Amino acid sequence: MYQADNLDLDAETLTIFKQNWEDKYMSAVQSWRNNWDNLTAFLSYLKEIRKLIYTTNIIESFNASLRKYTRNKKVFLNDDAALKLTNLAAQAIRKKWKKARFKWDQIYNQLYICFPNRL
């Protein structure tokens, strides 16, 4: 699904998905069937933007780095203390990230075309 070229994912695709997985994951298949339009909405974007949308490696990496800073803290005095620590950790993590997103210039230009008033 993620590698589809366009919005031509139709009932046949959903039927194949249903046949392969309904016995094992009935509620998940039902959820996909009920939310098919929302699940395939990202296919209206260009391929590079779609990859940026469904890729979670950046988020997982950030969360793992954040856990390193908060692992030893079992209890915070209040919510502000937790927010301050995560903010300071995020700033420290950001300084270490030097790697640019692959094809970022192309992705940025495509995002600018899709959302001209937001970037």
For this entry, give a set of tags.
119 residues, mainly alpha, extended
Q: Biggest sheet, open or closed, and with what strands and sense? A: none
- Give the termini distance in whole angstroms: 28 Å
> How much of the residues is beta strand, in percent?
under 5%
Low-confidence stretches: none
Average pLDDT, rounded to a whole number, is 81
Number of strands: 0
Helical fraction equals: 55-70%
Helices and strands, in order, run as: HHHHHHH
* Helix run count: 7
Radius of gyration: 20 Å
The quaternary state of the protein chains shown equals: single chain
Query: What's the domain count?
Result: 2
Morphology call? extended
Structural class: mainly alpha
Task: Write up what this structure looks like.
There is one protein chain. The chain is built from seven helices and no strands. It is mainly alpha-helical. The chain has two domains: 1-44, no CATH class; 45-119, no CATH class. α5 (57-70) crosses α6 (79-96). It starts with 10 loop residues before the first helix and ends in a 5-residue tail after the last helix. 0% of the residues are buried. The mean pLDDT is 81.
